[in-house]
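Record minuted for everyone:
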Amino acid sequence: MGLLDACEHFDKALVSLLGMNDILREDLNALLDAFPDQSSQVLRRSFVQASWAYVEAITHALKLMASIMVDAATCRLEADEIAFLRAQRAGTLCNIKQTIHVVTKVFGLRERNLGGGSDWRLVKPSIKIRDRLVHPRAVESLQVGDTD
């Protein structure tokens, strides 16, 4: 891929990222506006699903943008990092962490310790809640409690 083609692909990916960001943030804000009672089960279920749609969309877009940069030979990555970018599937948590790692390298950003932050420890349980809501096995699995 030539540099001009890479720039065009990158521009399209960036426009897509910004568009998804706008739409999905609007969804989250609309949910909060529509359901001022935060104990509403509809709000809780919808908010978890919309939040994860946002996280996964942004992760996918950043991974695509990093792939474009690598394909254009604008940066160097290790073989396992390139393999990750080419892989079709990865576990959700692994995908997010590895995407952030690769994106920081590709764009020359300072990487932060993702595993040790107080907010990061809440990600894994929220994935389980999302999975429980998207793939319910019983009516009880559709309830989102205060401790969730």
User: Anything to note?
Assistant: The CA atoms of residues 23 and 54 lie 9 Å apart. The chain has a mean pLDDT of 91. The chain has one domain: 3-137.
